[in-house]
Write the structure tokens for this entry.
Amino acid sequence: MMRKKPGLTSALIATLALGIGATTAIYTVVYATLLAPLPYPKPNQLVMVWSKVQGGNNVISAGDFLDWKRQNKVFQDLNAFNGGSVNLAANDQPEQVNAAFTTPGFYRMLGYPFRLGRDFRPEEGEPGKDRVVILTHKLWSRLGANPNLIGETLRINGEPYTVVGVLPAGMADRGESQLAIPLAFRPDQINHDYHWLLAMGRLKPGVTLRQAQTDMDAVTRAVAAEYPKSNKGWGASVEPLKNDFLPRERIHSLWLLLGAVAFVLLIACANIANLLLANGTARQREIAVRTSLGATREQVFAQFLTESILLALIGGTFGIGLGLALLRALVAVMPPGTLPTEADLHLNLPILAVALAATILAGLFFGCAPAWYASRVDPGESLKEGGRAGTSAGRRRLRSLLVAGEFALALALLAGAGLAVQSFWNVTRVDVGVRTDHVLTFALHPPKTEFKNPARMDAYYQQILSALHSAPGVSFAAAVTGMPLRGTSDGMPFTLVGGPTYADPSQRPGAGFQSVTPEYFRTFGIQVLKGREFTSQDNASNMRVALVNQDFVKRYLKGKDPLKERLSIEELIPGVQNLGPAVEWQIVGVFHNVRAGNLRQDFPEIDVPFAQSPSPDVNIGVRTAEDPVAMTKTLTAAVHAIDPGIALADIRTMDQVKHESLADDRFMLLLYGSFAAIALLLAAVGIYGVMAFVVVQRRHEIGLRMALGANRGHVTLLIAKEACVLALLGLTFGFGGAVLVERTMQSALYGVGSMDFTVIGLVAILLFATALLASYVPAKRAASIDPMQTLRTE
């Protein structure tokens, strides 16, 4: 039966393959990210343990971690970790690589197998015994994949480290870190003030999350009683590991994408049902003959439904292959860090089972109506018509409703894409607070052992900046512990001198805090709106000064003169994880808001002179008179003239930084736009198919009309009018769906009102125009009918 109509069969299979393929690809992402069990032994035992303050989660201090590990009664193991950058000397060429710093036993707790070697031993978590390293498979391969590398030495930050392990290929390679070094807490790091660690634990068998939370509440109360100055108001939060590092907005976006692709599948099914209804009408004589020869209604229904499910299985098979190709394309264009490292984007049995279920359900969805109508055919009436198929009013109404439903779904999906476009446009037009042209940025992470005191740290970077200034074509150069469009380096609590005092330190307000050199504002083109910039006189021997941004003034200094206010903030001790005593900073200026990693909102920020609060790790920004990319080698040489052993990491222009900061929005826009385009195409094909079939079914009627005086314009208008009625019906139904989609997407949009009728209206016009265009060919075909030939043959 399918071979007799290869065109129809191909159209059905292609339409379903498109729907199943898109659904399979997106469901694979959602399943791997949100639904699949973590790829660790007994993953339900793994939890993240956070410090909790003012209702939010925070990283923990080394003192808290050690107390928690010692006092808890619910964990088999509890480990701390964080990330950073190190200088790796490979083949005599220094390079910056991302590193994970973990307490011994971290990989053993996760159940990681090792490609070579072992995990860190307990004694390797002690200062002086921590010169060991574990490599990812990716880095091991890049270094030559030497199977005898265990026991060999690599120079990291100028020090020899012994390789003790190599992780297997796969999950670890998807993360940012390329090697791991033991966390060995020095005495100055063991305090309860400085929060800088993440903690992960494995629960004892039979311990529930609630029991773990109760136990940690008791532990944190005991720690707060012992250290009230630092820990009063702080608690702990025990949460499942799944999706722990995935922002809620991204989880919400993934579910929205799955909903969007479900709309595409429904539109595809409606299209196929329409085509099968048309084919069923054309097969009425065949059905009448079968019924006359003894076939029951149940047998006819079963035959048509079997054909539909067989078509669905063939289309689903092609769809799974298409889904695999789409998945590879998704991985290729997906921004780095979009998904957690545990997300394994491969087709597996659960995904194939869902694809099979979706295929069978689709076959039932689009097959039941044609099968039911076929089983209701009256053989006597059909045979009396001499083979010219008639169409019942119920069948016509169902086909019209299917097309209207396609347009309703397409309107909702296109409205979502339109809102995503508007949101993306709004984000790109945000005033980010910096000039991104002609600025090259890079990070420097010298070994901490080079800096014995803050003065040495400041002098080192003054030498670096002086060397950069001396390079031809350099206008300004600055060092900053954070980076515009990426975020400040620290968040610090503060109090206003002479303002409210806080018995509970955890209740203090907070703001972003970063150190900058004097030319920072001119390098990045940041406007100082009030007061002054920093100068070379703002050094360690003079009064501590600070600049705050507009959002800080708006939140905390409303109705006050900022230049008359002072801030009290605990001192950051350079190079160590510890806070010093509170010191006062005089506000001397207010600068324009600069967007950080989240371009969608402002946040309060405090900037202080680098000389008064130096740091070993900085980002360098250089404003050039010419193309900054062309000056990369010149600037690298200037840095190496001061320190030949340091690597320049993450070299980017500010234009690239801004482009990358929009990567998530651009990716989501691409997906929504692709699904909307598919929906528009399927809706156009659907109305084209209906109108083409209408012309065939009404050929005799059109011939009579033209014989009685109707001209081609009248006939064309007749067909186009019917298409417009169907489109308008679908758009009317779809308006409510579009409003619902807009409300559902609201948290993922930027600068879009709760009811944006402009976008919905434009999308409705586009769909209506598509309906007119799709009906043009059938209308012209109807207008070209020869009335005399039609009347003679029929």
In short: The mean pLDDT is 86. The CA atoms of residues 221 and 235 lie 7 Å apart. The chain has 22 helices and 24 strands. The longest helix spans residues 297-333.
